[in-house]
Specification:
This protein has 8 helices and 9 strands. By secondary structure, it is of the alpha+beta class. Keywords: Disulfide bond, Transferase.
């Protein structure tokens, strides 16, 4: 890329060059564990409409120490109406839905740092919204449309990677302001129906100064 465009655009440029049957997206600040890829590929081979994500361990940013999260502490990925990711621990639900610890975990959303999908499925879902800017809310957008357009989003317990939770962004957002809020407003407008108001109310002071752009094509994709 001749100029810096951010995570979302960079992933789509990479996807345009994919020739394999499966595409895997990884953030730069992750460390993969042994045998992390095979369980993701196996699940996609079983069901090519699954977007598969690994268990997320912790990579300490000061020491690069890898902290393994035991499989009996597995969590789903969720979000609040501030459109920010969080963890959901649901041991009782897991006991009902899953027969063994190795069974996939249905998850409402994914964290975004690592995912695997069949190339055809990612194309079917329309990839990432090309009008989302730099970084932010692309994980929720892909999660929403996976579930709402006939797919599945699953944590694969046998796959582990570690993510580094940084204390600040190591890059500039350029001259743009309110990038994350704009992305969230755009995703909410397309995918959240009557629930979009919960986020809109949180940023009501910004709506008159933020343009989310034309969402006609993204709404048509949903239909």
């Amino acid at each position: 890329m001749p100029t810096r465009k951010g995570l979302i655009a960079a992933r789509m440029v990479g996807f345009q060059h994919v020739t394999a049957d499966v595409v895997v997206f990884l953030d730069a600040h992750v460390e993969v564990n042994k045998g992390w890829l095979e369980p993701l590929l196996h699940r996609i081979q079983q069901n090519d409409k699954v977007v598969a994500v690994p268990n997320i361990d912790i990579l300490e940013w000061e020491t690069f120490k890898y902290n393994f999260i035991p499989n009996n502490k597995q969590q789903r990925c969720g979000f609040e109406f501030d459109m920010k990711f969080n963890w959901i621990y649901t041991p009782k639900l897991d006991g009902i839905q899953r027969k063994t610890w190795a069974d996939p975990i249905d998850t409402p959303v994914h964290m975004g740092c690592c995912l695997a999908s069949s190339r055809k499925n990612f194309e079917r879902l329309g990839g990432y919204d090309p009008d989302l800017e730099i970084w932010g809310c692309e994980n929720l957008e892909l999660s929403f449309k996976t579930w709402m357009c006939g797919g599945r989003l699953e944590v694969i317990p046998c796959s582990h990677i570690a993510h580094m939770y940084r204390t600040s962004f190591p890059y500039s957002w350029g001259n743009s302001t309110y990038i994350h809020e704009r992305n969230c407003l755009r995703v909410a407008e397309v995918w959240m129906d009557q629930y979009k108001i919960f986020y809109q109310h949180r940023v009501s002071n910004l709506q008159n100064i933020i343009s989310i752009g034309d969402v006609t094509e993204r709404k048509a994709l949903r239909e």
